[in-house]
Amino acid sequence: IFQFLKQLGIHPDWQFVDVYGMEPELLSMVPRPVCAVLLLFPITEKYETFRTEEEERIKAKGQDVKSSVYFMKQTINNACGTIGLIHAIANNRDKMNFETNSSLKKFLEESLPMTPEERAKYLETYEAIRVTHESSAHEGQTEAPSIDEKVDLHFIALVNVGGHLYELDGRKPFPINHGETTDDSFLEDAIEVCKKFMERDPEELRFNAIALSAA
User: Fold this and answer.
1) Sequence-distant (≥ 6) Cβ neighbours of residue 63 within 8 angstroms
2) What is the CATH number of the domain that holds 42?
3) Is-catalytic flag, 11?
């Protein structure tokens, strides 16, 4: 991910750091401020059941989502890491320092007026980011996971937009508003959301959180 940020033309004044545990003393080791949290988790039957129920509940009840939330759908298989990263950066773009020729900066500027579906389609054609994703994916593992593998790990981004904590997942039809948050409490609030994912699948161990922190 570090290489990935550099290749996309982002100044290293923000960095991704591992969150080693959910206890207060371990969270206190994470450099502040934190502007996004990425959660890697397994897609299991329990999770898919929950996801369907959650979607139906929100469609019935409605929710408040600010128009300033940058959200995109995921149409490329195994690109959830890239999309999580774009969600994390796009919703904090005012805090980021981009190089003048940054491919990500150009992508964000051009895709801002688009719908979530149009952004997904645009990413499919956007060589600079896709190639960077593929090269960094191959560096990290011996082989990229095949598309139809049963074991599926998925990335989502948690961000603070206008004092609300949003879960951004390109597999879902819309952002999920998890309630109010502040810059100071954001990491703790985001970790509470991560804990809910873990509680839904108590037998699972494959959860990993990383924070986008000030360097």
Assistant:
1) 174, 176, 177
2) 3.40.532.10
3) no
User: Per-block average pLDDT, block size 10, for the chain (215 residues)?
Assistant: 79 92 94 96 93 96 97 87 93 94 94 97 87 55 45 88 97 97 97 96 92 93
Q: Where are the alpha helices (H) located in the chain, listed in sequence order?
A: 2-7, 24-27, 45-61, 80-90, 103-111, 116-125, 127-140, 186-200
Of these residues, 80, 87, 133, 194, which one is catalytic? 80
CB 143 within 8 A of CB 137: no
In sequence order, the 6+-apart residues with CB closer than 8 A to the CB of 104 are: 8, 9, 10, 86, 89, 98, 129
d(CA 108, CA 8): 12
Structural domain span for residue 20: 1-214
Q: What is the pTM of this model?
A: 0.90
- Selected catalytic residue, list 35, 87, 133, 154: 154
Please confirm, yes or no, whether 154 is among the known catalytic residues: yes
Q: Quote the number of domains for the chain.
A: 1
pLDDT at residue 78 in the model? 75
- Compute the distance between CA of residue 205 and CA of residue 132 in angstroms, rounded to an integer: 29
